Amino acid sequence: MTEINRDIKFEQQIRKELDQSLESLGLNVEKQLQAGRLRALNQPVQKWSDRLRLENWIPAKSFAVVAVVLMAVSLWYTTRPQLMASKAEELEVLTITASLDMYKDLEMLQWLAETDEKG
Amino acid sequence: MAEEPDLSNSVNLNLFLAGVEKRAFRIAQFAVADSDNALDIVQDSMLDFVRRYRNKPEDEWAPLYYRVLNSRISDAHRRRSVRNRVWGWFARDSEDDIEDPIQTAKDPKGEDPLVLLERTRLGTNLEKAISSLPLRQQQAFLLRAWEGLDVAETAFSMGCSQGSVKTHYFRAVQALKEKLKEFGND
What we know:
A: mainly alpha; 72% helix
């Protein structure tokens, strides 16, 4: 027997065996398959106009809205001015533990220093 | 608004699905190794097929139906592999899981698989052999050898090229011969 004939016979036997296995599926499985088939056949047929109805697009619209909101929020966070970035002097004033009276007259002290330099 | 289904179309669809449903169930069962899951897959595939392709020409129904079925089977496989990967983090390999090389070694006698096939009347061994094939080989073999689809129809159903179908099919036949020989010698 050639290799090809052997293969053909081998496949025929497998097919026969698989066909035989269908007879022992059990009543429960057969009933459920039948019920599934009838449910598939009895489902309403959708028309093209139904597919274009507003309700069918709710998930897509919701997704688009969420995407736009996320993009807007991320853009706002990346482009807004850095409010917390303070100058070193301001930080020094904020962290000082000594009396703040001197800093209340800061402008006058700066004026005094400038006139001393000029004088 | 939904329209009433065409009666003659429904009768033909019913005959078609009644003709393929048991084989489809077995194909799904081989792929997922679980009857409940296989039933769900077949029922979903019938719903999806009727919803999408009921108005297609009848000679296109078989490849279209098996395309839907294969897609459902692949989805189930994907879900299972993701679940296994997640659970794999928690599970540890035990010593029992390690295969004994002596037990899995092939019998050097090397009997003809055809003779073994006749002797064992296949049955359980065939189921084990088909279930152990990689999914694509399993699909190619069952669609070609059992369902009788030609190479082009099988390629369409599997969503791959005709060359891939031939390769999967050839490998499946070789693997089945080997496995049946192996199981027959057990």
